[in-house]
Amino acid sequence: MSKVKKIYVNTNEKMCQYRLNQEAFNLIEGINKQYKRIAVVCIGTDRSTGDSFGPLVGFMLSRYRIYDFDVYGTIEDPVHAMNLTETMAKIDQENTFVIAVDASVGKLEYIGHIGLCEGSIKPGSGVGKNLPAVGDVSFSGVVTMGGIMPHVMLQNTSLGLVYKMAEITANSIKHVLYKQQKDKKERIFATA
Fold first, then answer.
1. 41 neighbors 73 (Cβ within 8 angstroms)
2. What is the predicted pLDDT for the residue at 4?
3. Which long-range contacts (CB under 8 A, 24 or more apart) does 25-30 make?
4. Predicted TM-score of the model (pTM)
C-alpha cells in the first residue's frame, strides 16, 4: 500500500500562494480519475470562527462563476455534520472530481498551515465526530490546537487567520480550475 502524499504550506511564508498553487495543480493532474464535473465541498459552519474556514472558501469560490464547477458549502448555506450525508448524496461521485475543504486542529507549530492531501478528509474527526469521508483531494486549514476542549479552541480562533487561509485556499482552487479548463480547451482546439 502506497503512502498518502500530504503537503503542508505555511501561510506566513512569502511564496505560500505560489507553492500551494503548484502543489495543488500537480497533485490533481496526477490523479487518475475520469470525470465529467468538478465539485468543491466546503465543510464547516459559520457559527464557529475556526470552523468557518470551509464556508468562507465556498463563499469566495461561489463568486467566481466563470469556471465550470459546483460549490457546496458557503457562509449562507453551510455543509456541516447535520447535512453532510444529504449533500454528498446530491453529487454523482463516480463521475465527479470532488475537492474537499475543511478546518482542522493540529499541533501548535502547524497552526496557520494549509494541508493538501490526495484522498479524502474525515470531517469532524478532530472534535470526536464520526462522519463520512469526503473528497478525491482535500485541503485542510489548521486553525487551532488539538487536544483538550477542541470546540472551545475552534470558537476562539482568530477570524483574521481563518480568512487569510480561506483566501489562499480559494485562490489555489481557482488556479487549478483555470489551468484545467484552459488545458481542456487547448486539447479541444488541437483536435478540431
1. yes
2. 62
3. 25/175, 25/176, 25/179, 27/116, 27/118, 27/137, 28/97, 28/99, 28/137, 28/176, 28/180, 30/118
4. 0.89
